[in-house]
Amino acid sequence: MKSNHFYAMLSRMKYINRWGLMRNTREENLSEHSLEVAFIAHALGVINNEIFGGTINAERLAILAMYHDVTEIITGDMPTPVKYYSPVIRNAYKEVEHVAKDEILTGLPLNLRKVYEPLLLETSKEEELWAYVKAADKISAYIKCIEEINTGNLDFSKAKESTYQAILKLDLKEANYFLEEYIPAYSLTLDESKNEEEDNN
To answer: What residue ranges define each of the domains in the chain, with the CATH number in brackets?
Structure first.
């Protein structure tokens, strides 16, 4: 019997929790994180096209973002301080990611693998698009920090600041625009959001 386990493996993303070294008031799993990154990556593409007159494929950004952490189904979520602790660890982790990618792709017939392989790890062919996915990933992490701090969890204070600086360091005008225009709303309550919406009408 064929072992077509690729899509079944994807469904396991909901069992992989993020932020393993941090105290969380609400756990975040890989599945919901990937959807949020897809929303944000798509938004960055739309901002590029509609605000800055670019021609980026926003839909492709959304798809790359959906799959950007799929290898973590096998590797688990490696905390950033550990992943970047030293070049040796980072390079070793990259090798593990490649092995995980190959293992996940074995769950597809050969004629489908070519479609999914460029989605699971960054490629030089789509280097520009992956830069936007990376920005979206960091913005998602920044939003998580905001949400945790809003509940009184100060464990995320340093992570919030370092993540913000990491986003600025990317020097991506679309990411900076998103921070300025849309991030403030993440600190509003639902009632405050409704009132602001009414004021704008």
So the answer is: 6-196 (1.10.3210.10)
Report the C-alpha gap between 146 and 184 in whole angstroms.
10
Using the CB atoms, write b or e for 135-147: b if 16+ within 10 Å: bbbbbbbbbbbbb
Q: Is 3 left (phi over 0), alpha (psi -120 to 50) or beta?
A: beta
- 174 in Cβ contact with 48 (< 8 Å): yes
Say whether pTM exceeds 0.85: yes
96 pLDDT tier (thresholds 50, 70, 90):
confident
Contact indicator for 140, 99 with CB cutoff of 8 Å: no
Instruction: Provide Rg for the chain, Cα atoms.
Output: 18
Locate 1 and state its tokens: 């019997």
